[in-house]
Amino acid sequence: MSYRSLRHWLALLLLACPLWAAAQSTSATQGKSFYREAWDETVGSTSETLRNGDWTFFIPLQTYHMPFAYTKEQRDEQNNNPMPGFGIGRTRALENGNSSAIYALEFHDSYDKPEWHLGYNYNWLWRTENGIRYGVGATFGLMMRADYANYAPLPFILPVFHVGMGRVSLEASYVPGIKKGTANVAFFWLRIQ
């Protein structure tokens, strides 16, 4: 394992530590502060997801740069393989059939540099008679990349598309762009609960 890969895995571990610590904290808090109460309501019982959710693993699969936004030369230079990459989180099935997740994720960006996400994901899900789930959702949180303020944490919010069966799901997101040659990227990953 190269020093670069080791550094990426250590950074992901540092991102995942707060998830693990929060999941271990099962003591009920008395007299929640206004901010804590607002946070829990806003993201749909985040602390409940951390305490009682299932451990979930995220495996980045593919990045796709939209042909309308990039020249062929630009697309040939972009990295479409987000590996090595890995994510860990907690996912909870909600009573209404939807799902709530908190995660830490590391993968390689379009320039083959590490990118980190610490985020929350909510999916509105429907099921077919044969057990296939499909739905849409949103993910938001903080991201860190080399080309955006040299790894300074920046907020993001993105759509999520979901299809799955049993404990395995294929999810995708789309990063919109305003001008040619930036963003306009689809990102695909496996989610294993």
UniProtKB/TrEMBL annotation:
Compartments, record wording: Cell outer membrane
Record Pfam families: PagP
UniProt keywords, alphabetically: Acyltransferase, Cell outer membrane, Membrane, Signal, Transferase
UniProt keyword Acyltransferase, yes or no: yes
InterPro entries xref list: LipidA_acyl_PagP, OMP/PagP_B-barrel
Residues passing through the membrane, by range: none
Membrane listed as a keyword: yes
Signal sequence interval, chain numbering: 1-21
Family: Belongs to the lipid A palmitoyltransferase family.
Name the record gives this protein: Lipid A palmitoyltransferase PagP
Species per Swiss-Prot/TrEMBL record: Uliginosibacterium silvisoli
